[in-house]
Please model this.
Amino acid sequence: MSLDSPTALTFDGTGLRVGLVAARFNQRYVDGLIKNATGTLHEAGVAEDAIRVIRVPGSGELPTGVQLLLQGGGLDVVIALGVVIKGGTLHDQLVAEAAQTGLLRVSLDTGVPVIAGVVTANDNTQAEDRCLGSINRGAEFARGALEMALLKKDLSP
Model:
């Protein structure tokens, strides 16, 4: 992920319904993403009861979790949150790529914007910075969700 984030815009999320699917693996970091994302959503006017949070085992299960959540209908956007930290094998790359590809597919298949909030890190220090520290990816993912949900509403017939 780039450190050159787009300029933060202001959005009115009043009335939006947001799903949040979060991995339990690397839970401390993912919990930080949830806290930052929900805080940003609340600041934009999204009501507490308009945010539905579910947990899945790991980042590889995010696409299925999003798909299952969307079967209930009624959501304007879904944010999928996970953290994949590099290990000694290629497993981290496989999981991250599968999650990203699956989330894109679910979004295109359902027509509901899905924000792929999967943080990839080379080590715990990078994960800490991006999820709990100075690089607030949770807020970035929430702002992306707000922008896409409002764009969809604006362009819908």
